[in-house]
Design a protein that fits this description.
Elements (H helix, E strand, L loop, with lengths): L1 E2 L4 E6 L2 E6 L1 H7 L2 E5 L6 E2 L4 E7 L3 E5 L4 E6 L2 H4 L3 H4 L8 E5 L11 H8 L1
Antiparallel strand pairs: 1-2, 2-3, 3-9, 4-6, 5-8, 6-7, 8-9
């Protein structure tokens, strides 16, 4: 897995990348009550706002970690946004995407670097 400074995780599955938020981010948000996902087929650029997530504490935007196309979204989160609190780095992924340049993943943090980042 790779991690961004915006507390997203990325897991490569074949020619796609699965994207979600880290357990650390889910803990900071508190109880998630609403999620708005992007449309499958949307083309996004790095740092585009792609997901809106609201919790009892705050509303946040999740940014596209890389350039690419959204290929699938996790519709289960629309009905059960609390899954993010239960399994942030597993079943509560937000979307899958095909990225334009797989080597861009090399610029992201590995798990050890992310743990050091969150201190």
């Amino acid at each position: 897995m790779k991690y961004t400074e915006e507390h997203e995780w990325l897991r490569v599955e074949g020619d796609e990348v699965v994207v979600g938020i880290t357990e650390h981010a889910a803990e900071q948000l508190g109880d998630v009550v609403f999620i708005e996902l992007p449309e499958a087929g949307a083309t996004v650029s790095k740092d585009d706002e792609v997901v809106v997530i609201e919790s009892v504490k705050a509303a946040s935007d999740i940014l596209a970690p890389l350039d690419g196309e959204i290929t699938e979204v996790n519709e289960a989160l629309v009905d059960e946004p609390g899954k993010v609190n239960d399994d942030a780095e597993g079943e509560a992924w937000f979307f899958k995407m095909k990225i334009e340049d797989m080597s861009a993943l090399d610029d992201l943090m590995d798990e050890a670097a992310y743990k050091a980042f969150i201190g």
